[in-house]
Specification:
Blueprint: H1 3-17, H2 21-32, H3 36-51, H4 62-66, E1 80-81, E2 84-92, E3 96-103, E4 108-115, H5 117-120, H6 123-137, E5 147-153, E6 156-162, E7 167-168, H7 169-175, H8 180-199, E8 202-203, E9 212-214, E10 220-222, E11 229-230, H9 265-268, H10 275-291, H11 301-310, H12 325-334, H13 346-369, E12 377-380, E13 389-392, H14 406-424, E14 429-430, E15 435-439, E16 446-451, E17 457-462, E18 465-470, E19 476-480, E20 486-493, E21 499-506, E22 512-518, E23 525-531, E24 535-537, E25 543-550, E26 555-562, E27 569-574, E28 578-586, E29 592-599, E30 605-612, E31 618-620, E32 626-634, E33 640-647, E34 654-659, E35 665-667, E36 674-680, E37 686-701, E38 705-707, E39 721-723, E40 728-733, E41 740-745, E42 752-756, E43 762-764, E44 770-776, E45 782-788, E46 794-796, E47 802-808, E48 814-820, E49 824-830, E50 837-838, E51 845-851, E52 857-866, E53 869-878, E54 884-888, E55 903-905, E56 911-918, E57 921-928, E58 934-936, E59 944-950, E60 957-973
Parallel strand pairs: 14-35
Antiparallel strand pairs: 1-2, 2-3, 3-4, 4-6, 5-6, 7-9, 8-11, 9-10, 12-13, 15-60, 16-17, 17-18, 18-19, 20-21, 21-22, 22-23, 24-25, 25-26, 26-27, 28-29, 29-30, 30-31, 32-33, 33-34, 34-35, 36-37, 37-38, 37-60, 39-40, 40-41, 41-42, 43-44, 44-45, 45-46, 47-48, 48-49, 49-50, 51-52, 52-53, 53-54, ...
Amino acid sequence: MADEKWHKVREIFDAALHRKPEERREFIREACRDDEVLLAEVESLLTSLDSAENFMETPAVAEVADAFGGNGKKLEKGNVIGHYEIVEPIGTGGMGEVYLAKDQILDRQVAVKILNEELSSDEANLSRFIREAQAASALNHPNILVIHEIGACEDAHFIVSEYIAGKTLREVLKEKTLNVSEVLDVSIQIATALGAAHEARLIHRDIKPENIMIRPDGFVKVLDFGLAKLVEHKNKSILGLNESALEQNHTAKGIIMGTVNYMSPEQAKGEDVDERTDVFSLGTVIFEMIAGQTPFAGDSVSDTFANLINAEPQPLIHFRTDLPDDLQRIVSKMLRKNKDARFQTMKGLLADLKDLKENLTFDEKLERSGSLGAYPTQSMKTTTNDAVFHITDRLPSFSIRKAAPVGIIIVLAAAVFFGVRLWQTRSPASVPGQVSEKRLTVEGGATRAVISQDGRYAAVAQNGAVRLFDLQNGSERILVPASKDIRITTIAFRPDGAVIYFGSRQMAGTVASLFSVPVDGGEPVKILDDIYGAVSFSPDNKKVAFVRRYPELNEFALLNADADGSNINKLASSRLPNRFDGTLAWSPDGSKIACVTVSVEGGFHYTIAKVDASTGSVDFVPDKRWTNINSIVWLADSQRVLLAGQDEKSVNLQVWRFDTNTGESSRITNDLFLYESISGTPDGRSIVAVKVRQSSHVWMLGDQQIQLTGGFDNYDGVSGLSWSTDGNIFYHSRANGRDAIWRMQIDGSQATEITPDTAGGFAVSPDGRLLVFQAKQSEDHLGLQLMNLLDGSQRSLTESVTAMAPAFFPDGKRLVFGLYDKKLEIFEVSVNKGQPKVLNDEYRAAMEPIVSPSGRFIAFVFNRTQQGKTEDGIAVVADESKQIVSSHPVKVTTGSRYEEPAIQWSADESAIYFIQIDNSVSNIMKLKLSDGTVSKVTNFADGRIFNFAVEPGGKRMLIARGLVERDATLLQLDQPM
């Protein structure tokens, strides 16, 4: 749009805003008269205003218009301003002309920006121009333009900066398409610069390709802090801390700052902005580097405003197929319209960008270094297209003909170690052939996935809806619409593929009902109430099997019924020490039903029971000890099954083939993701699963939010997190490819692995001298091990029990812990060893004990049944009397991959903190013990908190926080099993 036309739009639009809403339409029609183009532009802008929630009350688009140009003083070659001799013009900014000049005193090339005459006559603009120099000169960072001087001469105001030989990112993008590595390299450098600015409490507010210079050597410089302002510290105090008062230079309410295509939604609305607006603008730049266009660009400025506020960007995979999934995840999070749902700090974003860069670089070096084609391979696809890479079952060979540089030797050593890890964790037998992968969903939120026996359809429960995918023609549709109050608990095809059954329950409920809906569509019909877990059908389509829970009997029963829900019949019942967990599958020959069981005999583990479908007799398979089994499906021979399982040697749920007669197992997948809710065709060639990536980093909350750990798939802090009074932080991590306890300083430095191969759950004595952790003490038991951190010596603290979740008393002489036996109970034991004593046996299931700061009370999470009703909550026991002194029915979220909730005492013992999830977002809550009221402590808009620990004294908090991303994927083998 021409400048004069845009000025006319601005004038009419501004004038319209000074009229009552009901008068605006008539006014702009009169003002535009016969100019249909002008009328369309103003109406479009006004429509965007009307449709945007909380849009700016008195927006002024003058800042945008001013950036389009203005009358400025033109300098010629040879002109001198101050002691700078003009060489040539090199650019025009929104606030002034930029020239290459020679510093006559220091004999160096510099860049001189001269403020436009139109702007220099305005005191506010002049102040902002001066503030640019002050802001940028305060930043001493290699990726930020260096400011040498600010001055005035002959009524002209100017800034002198270093001269950068190179091209703007805009010029680079016009010349070529950047590959993924180049995109990440540029993005990391920009994020590094912005992170330094944010540390100095400055935000840029105008990140765009024109303000990013790239030198010939690839070094990036961020320019033009002309719109920078002081940031009001947004990291609100928690746990009763006082907040420091910080000064802030506010932009007038409603003034739009920045360039339209790269604005954040809050900028467009004229709202207060903070460093998260730079996160959004950088996300827009990264999107453009990949897609070749900005995510919200419209045909006009008003269209762009409307898209920015109302529209969602297209997935990057629509533009490029060579992108890693994590890059899509990162950019999507940067571009979220709700700033609370974006990366909250540039440091957090930078950690993810660096991790992705390192991962890709390592993969590239590994591919270049190893002779991957020399041996038979089993392959898994890890990208979103149809390409396949291979992981060898044998170690790759290396040939070094000459003395190699140290760096190369390190890379090769790392590659050898990585190969050894994969080779060591392979199962004794491998499924032959290649496995390719195709993602069915990319938005996250998938919880269940199932494939029809003929392989034509896949159904996915995602964000409360059921989606049906036609795998033959690639189409998809919503079969069951989403409801925010409903959770889909299970999903299954009838064997003939004509009907889908799904379990549904209220978000706040515990009991699910079973519904059916035809594949061709229709209204769901209720079949059964009170189902627990999965359902499975007899091969003749006539019967359905399911588990029902009887809390008053502490019983889990396997039942069957007619397909319409009538004629319910109990086949078998179970109780601890071996009980059905609700995961089951009816064999293709109809003779038996495989039921996954939870066992506490000989240590907590999972196994498979085969129940005779006619008599109900139970036969356990040969003893294969699984740490976890999530789902199961029979293969055609009614002897072998596919399952999502984790054994004692693997670190995550993977897809396995398992022989129920011989106990022989073969792994199909072998990566760092989790696989849940698997389903397969009878020949095993097509498998759908929910693929889960769970990431977690340790953060410190207090006056600031500080990220202490980084890296991919380490599960930092998820299974254990603790302070000690000697200035150390202890946390559970998988950073070395194994479960281990680590120690670091409170600033995140000097991270050191303390003890490897721990199963999760540990405690550090208040003086930092003793560490108690859960460890495998025999084939049958996970006991508590005591380590002296001063000399490294160890001894067992408990024997012949399956102990978990220890917690010290303040004096460091006693502990409480959870115990799996015939029921979940809490015990206490002396560190000098002795017979554990039960703390209180009033509750049927008690776990995660925590001792109050004074040692007078122990709180724990409970699950109990009274008068036929199940109740979850937090109870408090007095240490001296061992009696329950208070009990509160609250829902405590399980955050850990080991299914353990986390609770913490307040420093004054008046409250207990716990984790709670709402719409897949978790926050720390505070339970006030005096009246049972619950309030929110943190206010995150996205992400998951898996664990947390309050500092002794209550001033700061550690949290293990990250993401759980769940998408349905189709695995296809090139030959039957």
